[in-house]
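Researcher: Here's a chain I'd like modeled. Treat it as a single chain, no partners, no ligands.
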Amino acid sequence: MDALAVQAIAQIFALPILMMWGMPTSIMSCVGNVVFLPFLTSFIVISALIFITHIFCIPNDWLCFVLNNITHWWLYLLNFSSPTWLCAPACTPLNIISTVFFGAAGIYGLIYAPTQRTRYASLIGGAILCLAVPVFFTYGLFESSVHFDLVKKNKILQIDYTNSRLNLIDHGFFNVHASPEKVVNFTVRSALIKALGNRTIDSITLTRPSMRSFIGCSALLQCFTVKKVIIPFFKPFTSKGSWREYFKLKNSCTRLAIPIARHA
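Model: Modeled as a single isolated chain. Structure tokens:
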């Protein structure tokens, strides 16, 4: 119970920061941390014992065997994780206020509740509501239309959310960045999550196909669930790098069962 309380307090303090940074959180984080806490403790203790026994030339084969088995089971359990566990409430005033309110209520209950059981119950309940209420406001009561652009050197990434459909249109935005992957991971992803939450992208349209636009699109496929990629017909590239990134994008779409639509 103490471990759950620690995780609840961590979530209460971390969630508003993650929302303002545009970063997702896992709905299974509390349970996962409680499950893996014994593994982490055992790993640290046994690793320290192996280090000490090695210094003093004490046989430690059995310790290495135990450590390998702990690592094996740790990695085995990690395979059950899923990207669908990630959620990201939009950074709206209503979500921030609700998070602070329920978090403060949970901590107040932890301090002033009359019995230990009600203290833990109020804290864990407050932590659950901290996440559940903003998620409900984001995905259940969200406004029907949102439009905004990301601009760099007069090149635009158009973001259009209408009738529960999210469409991204790249008008050369990725082409003016030296590292499109970093732009996606630290700018585009954060802006999308802060404005709309962690949503499925219905379509990505590349109006000016190039090596960097293909790299940026591939990075988006790794960050979001995408339903369709739209690429206009283009003249043959003279650069081998452009063809290489195009086929990487095509292979990623095939692996993820994402159709590529072509148009004139």
